[in-house]
Design goal:
20 helices, about 650 residues, about 15% strand, elongated, alpha/beta, 5-stranded mixed sheet, 19 strands
């Protein structure tokens, strides 16, 4: 997928159109005209403009042509098409894609469309032509049964390779049964069969309601008996559909009849009676489908039932015919769109840092400014801690050393931060020479991995050497110094190792922003170093305090600087920094003493460590954008 694009999946097979976008691995439902789903209907005005999303119950103006579903026009000879079905479908696809692009703020670069299972090359070609007319990418087509199977698999209901699935789609007329066989590449369709009844369940139920609620000579009886082209019959069928949805949660539901007739009330028994012709055919239809697929019910590992409104008795009939309790999908409007995205994901390869080459420039001296300044800060704190150490000797033998151990820890942490600054240069600069065919340019992900892995090792080794150097300089046991220098650097080293392992998976379009966030803040480290240096100088009466005097004032000023640096390092929000920096600065200055000096430095070390942890976490979120969603589903128990 090109940089800055999204994958769009459109479900054209369900009772209403639904769409989902995949944005760097995150699935987002598309709001269509302000709703989660959109009717299939379109209306064509006299000027040729197509109005999509027209509900069946609406009554377009007399000079408009209404089409309940453009898909029904596909596959017909041109002489039998009163309207160009491909053009209507193109308008539908363009409208959905436009809504998705506006919602995501990015262009559509990959398209997946869910289609009925019985579509062959003719209608698939017409769909491809419609997408081309809508200026959309060539669509990857997924049949509805395969999309449903992929959706349930993605939610934890897996099936062994080679096993078979029975998919029953009862959300549209006619009800369709499909046998799929799982394999390593997805699903193979073995057989499909439609239960062709004269009328769908809503139509049968509407006829029963009209017969019971109207007189024999009521014209509504003739209107409902005909195909649902009359506005009154379309409105009645829509009211029946809404009443069936209400019956999911209640015992009775009203059905509005065209004025001036009184409303009617239906119950579960009414729906069950209307559904009986369908239920009587289910068992034989399942057996015919199994025979066509050349399998027995023992070969089935799962039965999936998709229905928009509950059909009483259908689940029991499927259980009797197969011996398996169906998995029922009723309220998942985007099940097909999400499942189709899962199946087509391997065909849309998202460029990542591992296969991207960002521009690089020759390394210049000014590019090393960050690393050199951070290294100077680290060495300054190390040398001050060594030179101001209070060494106690007995008969020329060192028996005790008093120095600021937290300051040594800060020196080790800044050495690690210097390594971060050097690693940041790896994917954007090069030293010398040019790459040829024999020595190709390494990918940005490879450079990031090498840089941060070297930073993790090099920074930790440098911090360890700081501890050893301190012990050698004061002629005393290096163990306490090594614990502080290495202990303060190790958390940052672990974060650098995590970044090295996961950063190559970052999407290519997110790399520039990620690189900007990984650049260590020199100013914050410099302020912290200055504050730490002044506090130590005030406590030991060393330069510049021995020249200027006023150790209390200088020490408090240094503590204030350290507090400001801690606030700037701990948060990335400008508002929080503005509020906390003065407060921490004043608070550090007030509490600064010889006893609290170490605690104040430890506070800065915690803030610096939190920055590294946040950076590693941000990298993990970019590299594995769906991991958080999967964890939430697991916690909510929705994967079972």
């Amino acid at each position: 997928m090109p940089n800055g694009g999204i994958r769009l999946s459109i479900d054209l097979n369900s009772s209403a159109i639904a769409a989902t976008i995949d944005r760097h691995g995150a699935r987002i439902p598309v709001m269509l005209n302000g709703h989660l789903v959109m009717p299939h209907g379109v209306a064509l005005d006299p000027t040729g403009h197509v109005h999509v999303g027209a509900p069946p119950a609406s009554q377009p103006p007399a000079n408009h042509q209404f089409v309940g579903d453009p898909l029904e026009l596909l596959g017909r000879p041109e002489a039998d098409q009163p309207i160009d079905g491909v053009q209507l479908l193109a308008a539908q696809l363009w409208h959905v894609a436009d809504q998705a692009a506006r919602q995501a703020g990015e262009p559509i670069t990959a398209l997946t469309v869910t289609i009925p299972p019985n579509w062959g090359p003719r209608r698939r070609t017409q769909l491809a032509h419609a997408a081309a007319r809508a200026s959309l990418p060539a669509p990857a087509m997924v049949t509805a049964p395969a999309a449903l199977a992929a959706y349930t698999t993605a939610h934890g209901l897996t099936a062994p390779d080679g096993s078979c699935l029975l998919i029953c789609q009862a959300d549209r007329h006619p009800v369709t049964l499909t046998i799929l066989q799982t394999n390593a590449d997805g699903y193979r369709e073995l057989a499909t069969r439609s239960i062709d009844l004269p009328r769908d369940l809503n139509h049968v139920l509407a006829q029963r309601i009209v017969d019971a609620a109207t007189e024999v000579d009521d014209p509504l009886r003739d209107e409902i008996a005909q195909p649902p082209q009359h506005p009154d019959s379309s409105a009645l069928l829509e009211s029946v559909r809404q009443a069936r949805q209400l019956l999911i949660t209640q015992e009775r539901a009203p059905v509005l009849l065209p004025a001036p007739r009184n409303p009617a009330v239906i119950t579960h028994d009414d729906v069950a009676i209307a559904a009986q012709p369908l239920l009587d055919t289910v068992h034989d239809a399942v057996q015919d489908t199994l025979d066509a697929a050349d399998i027995d019910s023992q070969h089935l590992s799962r039965v999936i039932l998709r229905q928009a409104e509950a059909v009483p008795g259908l689940q029991d009939q499927l259980t009797t015919a197969t011996g398996l309790t169906p998995v029922v999908l009723a309220d998942q409007f985007h099940a097909l769109a999400d499942g189709a995205l899962t199946l087509t994901a391997p065909h849309h390869h998202t460029p990542t840092a591992a296969n991207t080459h960002l521009p690089r420039v020759r390394l210049r001296i000014r590019d090393l400014t960050s690393a050199l300044l951070l290294g100077a800060c680290s060495l300054t704190l190390l040398l001050q801690a060594i030179f101001t150490a209070d060494i106690t000797t007995t008969f020329l033998r060192v028996v005790g050393v008093r120095t600021s151990l937290p300051q040594l820890g800060a020196a080790g942490a800044l050495a690690m931060l210097t390594a971060f600054a050097v690693a940041h240069l790896a994917p954007t600069t090069w030293l010398a020479g040019t790459h040829t065919t024999a020595t190709p340019e390494p990918a940005t992900g490879s450079l990031i991995r090498r840089g941060y892995l070297a930073a993790a090792v090099g920074g930790a080794v440098t911090a360890g050497l700081y501890g050893l150097a301190t012990g050698t300089s004061v002629h005393y046991d290096y163990s306490p110094y090594l614990k502080w220098t290495l202990g303060s650097a190790l958390p940052l080293a672990v974060c650098a190792a995590v970044i090295a392992a996961t950063a190559p998976r970052i999407p290519a379009n997110a790399l520039p922003a990620w690189l900007a966030r990984t650049r260590p803040a020199i100013l914050h480290a410099a302020i912290a170093t200055t504050g730490t240096y002044l506090m130590r100088a005030a406590l030991t009466i060393t330069p510049p305090v021995d020249l200027t005097g006023m150790p209390g004032l200088i020490g408090s000023a240094g503590a204030a600087l350290l507090g400001v640096a801690t606030a700037l390092t701990a948060s990335r929000s400008r508002t929080i920094r503005t509020v906390t920096a003065p407060g921490l600065g004043i608070g550090y200055a007030i509490v600064f003493t010889n006893d609290t000096n170490g605690a104040l430095i430890v506070g800065y070390l915690v803030a610096l460590t939190s920055w590294a942890v946040w950076l590693a976490g941000h990298t993990l979120r970019l590299a594995f954008p769906t991991a958080g969603q999967a964890l939430r589903r697991l916690m909510d128990g929705r994967t079972s």
